[in-house]
Batch of 2 targets.
Target 1
Amino acid sequence: MELSWTVRGQDKVSPSSLTDFLLVMQLVIRRYRPSDRDTVLTLFSNAILEHIYPCFQTSMTRPHFLAFTLALCAAGYHLGSVFGAVLLPGLWMGLVYYSCNKIYAGYVSMRLKTDMQDIPGNFLSRPDDCFWVAEAEIDGRDQIMGTVAVVAKQSGKEKYGELHRMIISPECRRVGLGSRMTQTALDFCKERGFSKVALETSSIQTPAVALYKKLGFCHVLSGIKPEAPSWVLMLANVSVLQMEKQL
């Protein structure tokens, strides 16, 4: 008997692994509905805020940051007491954590006030745009476990798709859902005749970068976004990675 991954509005795809089989029985990828709004916004916010601590950890484990922290500890001790040896590096680490929080919490705040405030208007109002959710039945209740969106872009004569809002709930990570969500978006872009699919992710999101590379995306550019002050970006050590896949 052939098993298939159920995708409403798309062709069925045969599973390629045991993890796909575990999800195929109850998970559906479908278009966003207005009733999904609160759950989608919560999933989006929580998933982005998860990056704060990994960002902080990555920043603080850089050799020159470790050296500076130890120097502050020694300086505090020589200037006064054990309290000073704890206070100075503590203030420094607090500043680095603030920078990491500023980037990701600020991003969430900005998106909730812009495109995520009106998902149908920003992601479903044109035929070449779409917003999907992955819905699974858990304990007899339908729950949204992931999202992904495509927005059509035009550059001269070239029409391509931008992939946005790739979010996977922690309960469904590393079981193939991210690949299926991305493939759903890629298939949509192929059907629309797009020349390529482009996306942006951050250097902290190493599992996402690995997934995109596995699916054929290439890293084309690294840079920073101007939304945060330069000193915040320097302390957080975050860069934006632009990736593309030709179709």
Target 2
Amino acid sequence: MSEALDLDRPELRSEPGTVESVPDEIYDTVVSAILDRALDPGTKLPEDVFCHHYGVSRTIVRVAIHRLQQDRLVELQRNKGCFVLVPDRKEAMDILGARKAIEPYVVRRLVDSASEDDLSSLQRHVDREDDAYHRNDQREALRLSGQFHLLLSSIAGNNVIQTTLLNLVCRSALVIATYSDVTACCKAHDHRRLVDLLQKRDAVAAVEQMERHLNDIERDLLQDKPAEAKPSLESVLQRYGPTARLRPLRPID
């Protein structure tokens, strides 16, 4: 199995040089930029910038935009243009819920199918995550944390799940950018613990670790903050009008 997934890896990029490949190139570029946090939710994506860069018509660009829109990565706003999607809270919960349904299956599959070379690749990837954390390179740590989950699905060898999880991890990056900051990404020690359990071929513990890991992410990102109590009119008057009590009452005309 190959080394940790790289956003420049061949399977995420089309061969340049033909007009027919441009929509795929645009799509892959936007996906990679979202995963890297180079494009944040709400960023405008003007069609003419794509047209100028790739030397193609708006019709070609719109093919890519339509695909990105279908995959819930961008949204079209009437009379305003195309923007990187800002997921609402319901969509954010649905994205994480889908990952919680899929990734434990990936882990179970890996316990049975991952080779020693595969596990070594995972170990080396986690080492890279640790290095990014120790260097306080939070953006790189976030990028690698998402790639770790993509590497798991790649090793599992189910192409449908791999494609689905790529979309979910990309959309998860938008959730993190919307509801938290760059520090709210996967913890490298969680990934290391999972790799250790895969090496031990402990399916039950490995699945539990993945479930716990995803639950922690969901809690950190989407926990409800207690609503701030609204002051009463009486407390407002006491705070802002302390001399009011000293004024004689006057009849209301």
